[in-house]
């Protein structure tokens, strides 16, 4: 809690700094629109939204690879809401437009008997004749054959073709929440194992006699989760102590055809709830003996996946993440005596991000590829499974974001990383490969920008799409062997987009609370912004520690851009406590979700105001959904000196009410007093400023009662606020209706203006 108290003291300093920044807002007149101007802004915003949606630009290419070759086709949106279909042959370095949807609209309509409006049909699958003169494609569950010269099409049943391979890693990732797959038949097919009456029973393929391996199991505490050794001589199982998951409830108030609300419930673990536990046993099939391994019970997650040593059925390893997320182990078990040994044993004073633990087991070489933040940055280690010796493969003040695949034969690791390239946004994603020995690190994507890579099925080629939030996308195809560009697929021309009058977002960087670390964010301005006036600021907030959230790739059509058109400067930044930077940057969230990076966010906006007189930080609004709903409401509770209005949608306002796996990851276990101290519900009486709460009554992600309990606490504290409950809606920002309410709320409270009278359709009348 020391960090939390220091954080509260820091807010006093930030408040004083805020007053100083406010004093600088004398160069521009504060923008307060008349009602007529408000109506015009809404109309202009709608018009710009419509115009932006009509301007075609390509941000990525989804290739449809043909099995047996590196030929692929893709579609792209073009002018007049049409779609172009393009075929590429990398070996030849050629690409060709097959046809545009408008060219085939009449043919498709005639063949399917369905009207096609504005060429608006979508091809779901397509393959070509051997001579490449015909294309057979599927649209609306109908297969058509099209002559590519005449573009005449007809229905066909001749759909026998080679399927397309989706791009995917060489290895499939599994997570602990998925659980292990239990075996029933032994690898040598001589035995079948099953659970009967809570006990483990085996039966030989040569006999119908059932042999009990246990007798003390029962339906209340059964044995189960069985796995055979590769040599079929041993069976691994668990004595299970089940714990029933409690339920949460919600009401559907407006189900058609009913006159009563419908009560719904679903299982939902909350922080502190009990977990089912598993005690590991080894059963010898020859003598029917049982050994309890000397490892403690598994009381977090389910029975683990077992990794057997290659060619040796004596040893297996499994992974154990302890509840509380502060210890992770890879444990080796000797089936002959039940003795265990820790091959990997990582401990931390804060948290280990369980969902981002990566391990790959090379059985033949007895090596484990392991990704961890143990040195302060997320990096790859190579672990000797026999000795436990660890070797750092990647290193430096940058982050391995994910491992795509491990090539044991070439002894290479393919991965994504960020923060390595100096002079660019540390969140930009790049793709790399490196040797097991840490040598020959190769950047497959050296160009500046945020990259997204798609490999061909045989990995001879890869498509690289890269852009920045305000720099047009470029998409090329490269040769994996020499990294040379084979050809450019797409490079968006922004002329049409800029002709709409839209202002592209600005990337802005300011120092964090430590005075050293860079905080990165984006700024969206109104298309018709008057440089002589200052505008209220609205922050789009999501401070969930599971990731980073500021957009990095090019995309103009988004809610932030749209809201800005009403007369606001809309911003988003990733403060300390979010992921994808150093471990120290991330650790700020530990036992401290109420922090939400506010100290960094406030400094960032003050720096923005110091640079631009058009930024009025005396009028700050904030909105967010889910964890962002918790954050936006928390802004008014913990920082009312800075934030003046907030819209909070489906917020997890008390981390004891929200889902167990997410909250214990950051707030820790057991549930301590810090949970209550940082609860929005506990702190409801501190509310200042204007607050709107939005919740869907059918939310099964964050229980609706989280918002209702917060509302109850606000009412009991005599606090005024708005509450929007959307009947039948799940986990959402309120949908189209809620988003209208949000805009109107900020117009009223930050611009001191009346939004359109929607019930009389004022926008249409003026």
Automatic annotation (TrEMBL):
| Species of origin | Mucilaginibacter angelicae
Task: Output the SUPFAM superfamilies linked to this UniProt entry.
Answer: alpha/beta-Hydrolases, DPP6 N-terminal domain-like
Q: Where is the Peptidase S9 prolyl oligopeptidase catalytic domain?
A: 558-741
Q: Give the classification, highest ranks.
A: Bacteria, Pseudomonadati, Bacteroidota, Sphingobacteriia, Sphingobacteriales
Q: Where is the Dipeptidylpeptidase IV N-terminal domain?
A: 181-472
Question: Pfam families under this entry?
Answer: DPPIV_N, Peptidase_S9
How is this protein named in the record? Prolyl oligopeptidase family serine peptidase
Which InterPro entries does the protein's record reference? AB_hydrolase_fold, Peptidase_S9_cat, Peptidase_S9B_N, Serine_Prot_S9B/DPPIV
Q: Which UniProt keywords apply?
A: Signal
Which residues are the signal sequence here? 1-23
């Amino acid at each position: 809690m020391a960090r939390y108290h220091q954080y509260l003291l820091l807010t006093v300093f930030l408040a004083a700094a805020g007053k100083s920044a406010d004093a600088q807002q004398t160069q521009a007149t504060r923008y307060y629109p008349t009602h007529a101007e408000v109506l015009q802004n809404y109309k202009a915003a709608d018009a710009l939204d419509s115009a932006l949606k009509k301007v075609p630009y390509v941000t990525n290419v989804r290739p449809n690879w043909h099995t047996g070759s590196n030929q692929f086709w893709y579609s792209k949106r073009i002018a007049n809401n049409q779609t172009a279909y393009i075929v590429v042959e990398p070996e030849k370095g050629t690409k060709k437009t097959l046809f545009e949807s408008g060219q085939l609209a009449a043919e498709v309509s005639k063949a399917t008997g369905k009207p096609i409006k504005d060429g608006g049909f979508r091809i779901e699958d397509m393959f070509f004749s051997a001579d490449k003169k015909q294309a057979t494609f599927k649209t609306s569950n109908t297969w058509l054959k099209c002559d590519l010269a005449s573009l005449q099409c007809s229905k066909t049943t001749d759909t026998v073709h080679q399927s397309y391979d989706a791009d995917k890693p060489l290895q499939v990732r599994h997570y602990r929440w998925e659980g292990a797959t239990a075996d029933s038949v032994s690898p040598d097919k001589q035995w079948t194992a099953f659970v009967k009456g809570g006990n483990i029973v085996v039966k030989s393929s040569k006999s119908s006699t059932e042999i009990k391996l246990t007798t003390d199991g029962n339906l209340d505490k059964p044995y189960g989760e069985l796995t055979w050794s590769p040599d079929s001589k041993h069976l691994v199982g668990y004595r299970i102590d089940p714990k029933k998951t409690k339920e949460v409830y919600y009401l559907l108030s407006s189900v058609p055809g009913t006159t009563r609300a419908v009560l719904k419930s679903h299982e939902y673990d909350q922080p502190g709830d009990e977990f089912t536990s598993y005690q590991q046993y080894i059963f010898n099939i020859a003598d029917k003996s049982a050994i309890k391994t000397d490892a403690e019970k598994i009381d977090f997650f389910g029975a683990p996946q077992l990794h057997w040593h290659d060619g040796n059925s004596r040893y297996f390893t499994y992974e154990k993440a302890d509840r509380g997320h502060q210890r992770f182990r890879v444990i080796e078990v000797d089936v002959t005596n039940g003795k265990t040994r820790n091959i990997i044993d990582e401990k931390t004073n804060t948290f280990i991000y369980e969902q981002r633990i990566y391990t790959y087991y090379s059985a033949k070489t007895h090596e484990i590829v392991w990704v961890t933040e143990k040195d302060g940055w997320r990096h790859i280690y190579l672990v000797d499974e026999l000795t436990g010796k660890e070797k750092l493969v990647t290193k430096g003040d940058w982050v391995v974001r994910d491992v795509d695949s491990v090539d044991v034969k070439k002894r290479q690791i393919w991965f994504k990383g960020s923060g390595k390239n100096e002079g660019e946004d540390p969140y930009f994603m790049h793709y790399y490969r490196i040797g097991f020995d840490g040598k020959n690190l190769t950047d497959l994507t050296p160009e500046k920008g945020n990259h997204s890579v798609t490999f061909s099925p045989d990995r001879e080629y890869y498509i690289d799409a890269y852009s920045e939030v305000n720099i047009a996308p470029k998409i090329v195809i490269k040769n994996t062997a020499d990294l040379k560009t084979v050809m450019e697929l797409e490079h968006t021309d922004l002329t049409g987009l800029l002709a709409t009058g839209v202002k592209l977002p600005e990337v802005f960087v300011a120092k964090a609370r430590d005075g050293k670390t860079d905080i990165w964010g984006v700024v969206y301005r109104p298309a018709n912004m008057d440089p002589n006036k200052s505008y209220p600021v609205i922050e789009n907030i999501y401070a969930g520690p599971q990731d980073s959230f500021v957009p990095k790739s090019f995309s103009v059509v988004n809610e932030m851009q749209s809201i800005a058109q009403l007369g606001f400067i809309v911003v988003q930044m990733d403060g300390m406590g979010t992921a994808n930077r150093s471990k120290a940057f991330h650790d700020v969230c530990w036992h401290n979700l109420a922090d939400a990076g506010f100290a960094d966010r406030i400094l960032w906006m003050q720096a923005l105001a110091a640079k631009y007189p058009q930024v009025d930080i005396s009028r700050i609004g904030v909105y967010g959904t889910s964890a962002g709903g918790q954050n936006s409401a928390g802004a008014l509770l913990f920082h009312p000196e800075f934030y003046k209005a907030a819209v909070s949608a489906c917020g997890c306002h008390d981390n004891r009410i929200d889902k167990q796996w997410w909250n214990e990851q950051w707030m820790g276990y057991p549930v301590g007093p810090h949970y209550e101290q940082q609860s929005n519900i506990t702190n409801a009486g501190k509310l200042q400023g204007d607050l709107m709460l939005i919740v869907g009554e059918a939310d099964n992600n964050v229980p609706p009662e989280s918002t209702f309990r917060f509302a109850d606490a606000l009412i009991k504290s005599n606090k005024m606020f708005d509450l929007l409950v959307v009947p039948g809606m799940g986990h959402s920002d309120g949908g189209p209706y809620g988003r209208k309410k949000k805009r109107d709320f900020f117009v009223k409270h930050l611009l001191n203006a009346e939004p359109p009278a929607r019930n009389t359709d004022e926008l249409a009348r003026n």
